[in-house]
Amino acid sequence: MTDILLSLLLAISLWPVYALLCAALRWRYGRAAVAQCIVANERTFARIRLLLSGLAVPGFFYLFAHNEPLQWMIFFYLLALLTLTDLQMRLLPDYLLMLLLGVGLAALAVGMPQMPAPRFALAAFAGAITLALLCVAVQTRWTGITGMAAGDLKLIAVLALWFSYKMLPLLLFVACFAGLVYILVIRCVTGVRLRTIAFGPCLALGALVVHVLQRLNPGETG
Predict the structure, then answer these.
(1) Residues 6+ apart with CB under 8 A from 2
(2) pLDDT per residue over 40-60, tens digit each?
(3) What is the radius of gyration, based on Cα positions, of the chain?
(4) CA atoms within 13 A on the CB side of 200
(5) At residue 133, does pLDDT exceed 70?
(6) DSSP one-letter code for 66
């Protein structure tokens, strides 16, 4: 019963914490700049928040029920906030990405359980950062635009710090597959041909799937 109540409280807390995050973004970038980023109207976004909060309850309950280490509670809480910002504003704030990075580095430094080996994690992170910068440079050089937003590339690099390098291809596969399914569903239901989608939620789904698989097969953590 305690786990259910804690899960419910965490899910509900996403609303006021997200409001504080939006206030911080308006303070940092200006109200007009933040307003220009918004792609979901108030009614639509209210439904999104309700849906995400509803999905977060069983997610947090799973973490509590399996006595997951603290860093994974923080990890998925931050991913939920990133999902909200990406759905409303197509934005993955550096504030949250830096928190996600800092928690990951701290967990590696103190040897928290269910984390990859530091030498492999740091190498994967450095490689992901290098590849992300290369992708941005190539896309900008040849097309003048970037096919994937910088925030998505930063998030992928941070995720490389949290997961075994063996599981990263699966994480990206799940994320890309989820994105394709979403595009096809919208196309079939509404007839709208989407040019871009919020990829952050897809990466969050991929992270959740891979984390569950790693817990079922602890040998993949290293």
Answers:
(1) none
(2) 888 889 999 999 999 999 999
(3) 18
(4) 27
(5) yes
(6) T
Tokens of 76: 């998925």
Give the rounded distance of the alpha carbon of 91 from its chain centre: 11
Token duo for residue 83: 């999902």
Q: Is 181 left (phi over 0), alpha (psi -120 to 50) or beta?
A: alpha
Residue with tokens 């108030």: 42
Report how far residue 200's alpha carbon sits from residue 214's, in angstroms, rounded to the nearest whole number. 21
Report yes or no: 152 and 131 within 8 Å, Cβ to Cβ.
no
Going by C-alpha positions, the residue among 184, 204, 208 that lies closest to residue 96 is 204
**CA-wise closest residue to 83 among 125, 53, 62:** 53
> Cα–Cα distance between 83 and 129 in angstroms, integer?
21
